[in-house]
Amino acid sequence: MGVWGSKDKYMKLTEGVILLDSLGDLQPSNSSPILVCGSHCGDNGTFARKLKNCHVKAVFLNNAGIGKNQAGISGLSHYEVENILACAVDHNSAEIGVARDIWESGIISHTNKLAEEAGIQPGDSVQEAVARIIRIIDNTSLNPKNKSFESLIDDEKENSSKVDLKKQIQTQIDGVSITVTDSITFLNESNSGDIVVCGSHGGVSAGEYAQKRHLKAVFFNDAGIGKNNAGIKSLESLSDAGILACTVDCMSAEIFNGQDILDNGIITVCNQLAKSRNIKEKMKVKEAIKYCNFTCRC
Predict the structure, then answer these.
(1) Total number of domains constituting the chain
(2) Contact by Cβ (8 Å): 267, 240
(3) Are residues 143 and 115 in the same domain?
(4) pTM for this structure?
(5) What domain range includes position 143?
(6) What percent helix, strand, coil does the chain show, rounded to 5?
(7) Does residue 161 form part of some domain?
(8) How far apart are CA 135 and CA 125, in angstroms?
């Protein structure tokens, strides 16, 4: 049976499929070749290497509104380099950060060449695409000359390469200390009380990481906002938790690029705590940072 891995809840899926709300939750012990994930499809090779080391052969992710420089789908080529079939789903068809919705409602908007060669096309549903992949995996008469298909069924080869995670950098803006990271999943216990500018979306799963790390303030990418406002959905719960939170326009700064969020991000949505600090929509992140220097109740 497949595994629904969010919050320790399980549901019956097609065998060989795992559902995770965040790529940060994927473990090396994973044995499911097909990953349906709520995360965005942005990457610089970091997550592609991680997925390869976690035995993933095919992945479905959210296109995060595509955004500046098509950052929301930049991972497609990186997954291809690692021989991972990859598809991005329309952010208006399924909620970012919610794997179950990707699985149940996701409509594919973009694919890499491995997916194309498997016969997957934009407009296909995620479940249709998964059914096609399962047939390929189970097809013993598969043409051995087709390396794209081989990547789905080959026995796993020993891989000693280490995942090269870009962690975080600390800097100051107008005397205010901040942490910059491409993904909120790169943070750890030492970041408690930090003001963080990250390349993650502002959905529920990212908000859970912000609360887990007891941040003081956090700036996300709005991922095109998308279905049911999923790209900004964590903001109010973060306000309730005493965490100032804002999202920036996905066209102003690249998703999965914390430095670009800091340098060029233009705020689209603020939670109540941010508004109480006089942070406003259309304000630049660098301008908003100076309003974040307050006593944290996190």
Answers:
(1) 2
(2) no
(3) yes
(4) 0.88
(5) 3-153
(6) 35, 20, 45
(7) no
(8) 16
User: Counting every residue, how long is the chain?
Assistant: 298
Q: Is residue 162 part of a domain?
A: no
Kindly give the confidence (pLDDT) of every residue in the chain, 298 residues in length, as a single tens digit, with 9 standing for 90 and above.
455 554 444 445 788 999 999 999 999 999 999 999 999 999 999 999 999 999 999 999 999 999 999 999 999 999 999 999 999 999 999 999 999 999 999 999 999 999 999 999 999 999 999 999 998 876 633 333 344 444 443 433 333 333 334 589 999 999 999 999 999 999 999 999 999 999 999 999 999 999 999 999 999 999 999 999 999 999 999 999 999 999 999 999 999 999 999 999 999 999 999 999 999 999 999 999 999 987 655 5
Are 257 and 122 in the same domain?
A: no
Nearest to 56 by CA among 69, 65, 43: 43
147 backbone φψ class: left, alpha, beta (φ>0; ψ -120 to 50): alpha
Domain-terminating residue out of 153, 181, 213 = 153
For residues 142 and 262, membership in a common domain is answered with no
Distance CA(241)–CA(288), nearest Å, equals 20
